[in-house]
Structures are given as structure tokens and as C-alpha cells.
Amino acid sequence: MRGGGTYGRGGRLGADGEGPVLAAGPVPASVHVPAAETLPPDVAVPASSPRLVVAWTQGHSVRKDDALAEALRVALERRTRRVLALWAPLLGWSMLARGTIDGFVGYCAEAVDFPPGALLALEAGCEFRTLEGGPFRVGFAGPDTTRCFVAGRPGVLDRLVALTREAVGAAVA
After folding, report:
1. 29, 8 in Cβ contact below 8 A?
2. Which residues contact 33 (CB under 8 A, 6 or more apart)?
3. Is 17 left (phi over 0), alpha (psi -120 to 50) or beta?
4. What distance lies between CA 25 and its chain's CA centroid?
5. Where is 63: in which H helix or E strand?
6. Reported pTM
7. E-strand spans in 65-112?
8. Residues 6 or more apart from 90 whose CB is under 8 A from it?
9. Which residues of 40-74 are buried (b: 16+ CB within 10 A; e: fewer)?
């Protein structure tokens, strides 16, 4: 039932465009498919997947000429399957918590988005590291420059940290 031939409920327009021609029985004008049935199954990407999908966020204070931010973004774009740089970081955090993406990399993350996102990730079993791989203390006070991190499930966190450590080394050198 596509195109202009559908007319309301159970009818169609006549060939000459005059009035509806009623069908002998019910004719569907549309079919409703609930959204939940159209979504892919909620299956986490296996840690052995060759190319990871990550979310990226950076704080508003990060300048366009920030060498480390650029090195991180370039490394992630080149070495992962996809980088989700969303205007709403909580979408990335919820995807990480559900297991639909592999990790989350933050550079000078904003204090507004970080606390609820970090809570979601921690409750889902994710761990946090610094960009260099050291321990990251999840806290909500202090300047944005203290919120540079890699978050992910234990099975993929080392792979993500290897990417960010390499990018940090390249930016500093």
C-alpha cells in the first residue's frame, strides 16, 4: 500500500481520481511495527572485536589548536571502527553502560556531563584509567583539566589505553 493509492481506511481512489472505491474487505492503510522490534538485539560487542567503537567528549575550554586533543582524536579515528563525538555525552555513557559501544574517551570533560555518565559506567562494571593508563580517581570537583580519562569494560580497557597512551606520547614528543 504505497504511493497516492491509499485512501483513509479500507479504500482507494478511483482510476480517474473521483472519490473512493471501497474494497471488498478490510485493506490496511498502514502497518505499525513497535520500535522495540526494529532495534538490533542488545548484544555487547565482544572484547575480541578487531576494531572498537568509542565515544569521545572534550570540554568547552579545549581550544581548536590543542595538540593533545587533536592527537587523541586522530589516533582514535585511525585505529577504531567509529568515534562517536556526540553533542549529548550522556548518550555515549548510556551506550557504554548497555554494552553497545566499547569505551569512552574524555579530554577535559565538563563537570555537568561527567558525574551522571561516570555513575552509569561504574554501575555497569566499567573501569576508568588516565590517558596514560594510570589509576583515575572518579571525582566531580576541580577543574576540567583533571577529567582526562579512558573508560571501558575490563576486557577492552587495555586496548583503549594503548591507543591513548600512544597519542599522548606523540603529542608530547
Report:
1. yes
2. none
3. left
4. 46
5. none
6. 0.70
7. 82-85, 103-107
8. 113, 116, 117, 120
9. eeeeebeeeeeebbbbbbbbeebeeebebbebbbe
